Amino acid sequence: xxxxxxxxxxxxxxxxxxxxxxxxxxxxxxxxxxxxxxxxxxxxxxxxxxxxxxxxxxxxxxxxxxxxxxxxxxxxxxxxxxxxxxxxxxxxxxxxxxxxxxxxxxxxxxxxxxxxxxxxxxxxxxxxxxxxxxxxxxxxxxxxxxxxxxxxxxxxxxxxxxxxxxxxxxxxxxxxxxxxxxxxxxxxxxxxxxxxxxxxxxxxxxxxxxxxxxxxxxxxxxxxxxxxxxxxxxxxxxxxxxxxxxxxxxxxxxxxxxxxxxxxxxxxxxxxxxxxxxxxxxxxxxxxxxxxxxxxxxxxxxxxxxxxxxxxxxxxxxxxxxxxxxxxxxxxxxxxxxxxxxxxxxxxxxxxxxxxxxxxxxxxxxxxxxxxxxxxxxxxxxxxxxxxxxxxxxxxxxxxxxxxxxxxxxxxxxxxxxxxxxxxxxxxxxxxxxxxxxxxxxxxxxxxxxxxxxxxxxxxxxxxxxxxxxxxxxxxxxxxxxxxxxxxxxx
Length: 491
Prior knowledge:
This protein is α/β, with parallel strands linked by helices and about 500 residues long.
C-alpha cells in the first residue's frame, strides 16, 4: 500500500502545481524586475522601502532594493541572486541584469503559451547567449593604457547612480590614474591584482619620492606636542593643515589581563605592511603580530575587519573567523570584500558577540553569545540583543579587534587649547573655508569627518588645497617665495 505524502502549509500559504505554479513564478519574477526598472536612466526614481519594523530605506541601487524586499517566491529569489552575482563579480549593472532576466522570462511566458517545451526554450536561450558573446567579441574595440578619454568614460559610466555624480569627472581622473599605477604589464597585456590595490606599497613609495623631488620636506619621527611644539609650527608657517586621521582604536574591554595575543587591527595591519616593505618588525618576527599557522579571530564588521581577515589568510593562518554582532545585511563593510573573503575560506559568525576572554598571559578561548536584532536604536539601526542560553566557546591563538576608530585628543596632544573640537572629538571647522577657529589653521579628512572612506580623503585634500591657496592670496598680495616663514606645512 502506497502512502500519499502529507504537506502542512503555514496559514495564508497555498500549494500550486503544473502550469499554475509556472505562471505564478514568472509573474513574481516579472514584478521584481518591474520594481527596479524605473530606477534606471538619468530620470530614474528612488524607491522608499519600509520594513516590518518601520525602518525606512531610500535608494535607487538595485541590489539594495532587492535585499530590503521580503521576497519568498523561488523565481523572484532567483532574480535577487542574479543581482548579487552581478554585483560581486562586476560591481555594476545589477539593475540592468535583473531587468534583462525579467524580459527573458516574459518572452518565455509567451513561448510557453504556444506549447513550446521549457527545455527547448532554455536551449534557445543558451544558443542566443553564445551568439550574443560572438557579436560582442566582433564589435569590441581594443584599447590601450594611453586611451585616457575612453578609460575615463568607462569610469564615469560605472559611477552613474552610485552617489558620485557631483565629483564624477575628478573621481574618474583619479580612478584611471590609480589603475595605471597598480597595473602590471605581462606579454603586452595589462593585469591588475585587486590585492595590490590595498596591500602593494610600491605606489606609496613612488608618490612619496615624487613629492620629495618636487621640494616638499618631510619631517619623520616627529611628534607634534613633544618633539616639536605646535606653537613653533604656527610661528614659522603662514598656513597649517591638520590631517592626522583617526587612529584611536575602539576596544571591547575584555582583555582584563593584558594578554599579548589580543591586538588592535591597525597595529596588525601596519606590521604586515612594514614587513612587506622589508622593514625589521620585532613584534612580527617574534610572532605577536604574525598570524602564520594560527587560529585567528577577528572581531568587527567594517572595512578594516575585512582587511584583517584577508591579510591573515595571506600570512598563512591555520583558520580565520570573523565575529560580528549584527547580520550580514547590516554589516558596514564592503559586501564584495565579504564575498571574496568567503571564497578564500574565511568563516563569518554573524549575530555573535564576544562576552569573555578566557586565559591569562595568552587568551585561548573566547566565550560568545548569539544575538538577534530587536527594535531600532537612535541611529535607526535595529539594536542587537542577546539570545538567552546561547553561549558557546571558540578556541583561538590570535584575536584582532577591528571595532572602529575615534579621534585622538588633538588639543591636548598639541597643547593647543584654542583648537576647538566637536562632541565627537573631531576638529571643528568652517566648512566654507575649511579653517578651524585658529586663523591660518585648516583641517581636513577623517579628523573632521570621523572615520570614512579614502575617496573622501582625496576629495577633502584637493578642496582644502584650494581653500589654503585662496586664503594665502587674500591675506598676502603675492605668495611668499622666500621668507623666514614657509608658506605651508602639513602635519
